[in-house]
Amino acid sequence: MSYDLTSGGAPAGPLPVPARPRVGLLGTGPWAHRTHAPALAAHAGSEFAGVWGRRPEAAAELADAYHVKVYEDPDALFADCDVVAFALPPDVQAPLAVRAAAAGRHLLLDKPVATTVADARAVADAADRHGVASVVFFTLRFAEPAAGWVQEQVGRTGWFTASAHWLGAVFPPDGAPSAYADSPWRKDKGGLWDVGPHALSVLIPVLGEVTSVSATRGPSDVVQLALRHASGAASTAVLSLGAPTAAAGVGLEVRGAEGVFSLPNWTDVPGAYGRALDALLTAARTGEPDPRGARFAARVTEILAEAEGQLSD
After folding, report:
1. Do domains 22-141+271-292 and 146-264 have the same CATH topology?
2. Phi, psi values for residue 167, rounded to 5°
């Protein structure tokens, strides 16, 4: 069965956000099972309304687990919901997000919002054009204590440099792959696109806009980014999904006039997703765009696309 991901109805403005908004989920993969669905079901300020997926049997299974409606068509889900949450590959997410925005639905997106600059800008433009709120689930910007740490560093000045690494063992050369290995887009795009957004989601707000980027390859799918920021600071990010199991890990350190500060560990990812939904609802009700929204995500895509272009030269 195939689905038209580009059609949609007539443009519509956003609907008023009710006291208990209905949230529909698009996607049925491991991330949806482990994070999106349990967080939506547990969220006290909204109602988990239903699920659509490209595989009807998987959508039915997930919907049944949470006693919500299964949808055969994404437009039907849009019609019944106030918010649409996405757990889809980025290049499937983007056109559906444009359609959801045109239907007046607020967008709880996943990173990367798209893997082409045109698609990422289309999502941000659609949200602006139709007046809907958007938040992108950059995990480190919502998971505590990491999220609070980021805000503390945003308040400091005098930064000199920073280094980040996100070395995932999704496709380890020395062991069994992770639950996320059965993902064609991750196999194709690698760590640059899957975990690069996490690093940028911290480096940009702390050190300032990226003014230049250079990229080099290492072993496996390792990519190293060297970034210059508007603050004058320089940073690096080493990214991979193919790290050996013993070498896997995440870290980020910033250094400046006030000292050296290291990103703390975080654990409660479903709770972080609930906070992302809270942020989206606040933006929808106040009309104040969230800084972690689709426009910021489009900038992240621009930087990653520039790096990818250098790697293919």
Report:
1. no
2. -115, 95
Q: Is residue 189 helix, strand or coil? A: helix
Helix (H) / strand (E) containing 26: strand 22-26
Strands 69-70 and 47-52, bridge-based pairing:
parallel
CB 167 within 8 A of CB 240: yes
Contact predicate 253/263, CB 8 Å: yes
Distance of CA 52 to the CA centre of its chain: 19
Assess contact for 47 and 58: CB atoms under 8 A: no
In this structure, the strands spanning 159-167 and 234-240 are parallel
Residues of the chain with pLDDT under 70: 1-15, 313
Q: Which tokens hold the place of 78?
A: 């849009």
What is the enclosing helix (H) or strand (E) of 298?
helix 294-312
pLDDT in tens, 91-138: 999 999 999 999 999 999 999 999 999 999 999 999 999 999 999 999
For the chain, domain boundaries: 22-141+271-292, 146-264
Q: In a 10 Å sphere around its CB, with 0-12 CB exposed, 13-18 middle and 19+ buried, how is residue 151 labelled?
A: exposed
CATH T-level fold of 146-264: Dihydrodipicolinate Reductase; domain 2 (3.30.360)
Residue type, 14: P
Calculate the CA dihedral of residues 128, 129, 131, 134 and round it to 10 degrees. Answer: -40
Q: How far is CA 190 from CA 119, 247, 259, in A?
A: 19, 17, 33
pTM for the full predicted model:
0.93
* Max CA distance (Å), the chain: 58
By residue count, the chain amounts to 313
Instruction: Tell which residue, 223, 156, 218, 165, has the closest CA to residue 189.
Output: 223
Q: What is the pLDDT of residues 295-310, one digit of tens each?
A: 999 999 999 999 999 9
CATH number of 22-141+271-292: 3.40.50.720
- Say which residues have a Cβ less than 8 Å from residue 65's Cβ, sequence separation at least 6: 37
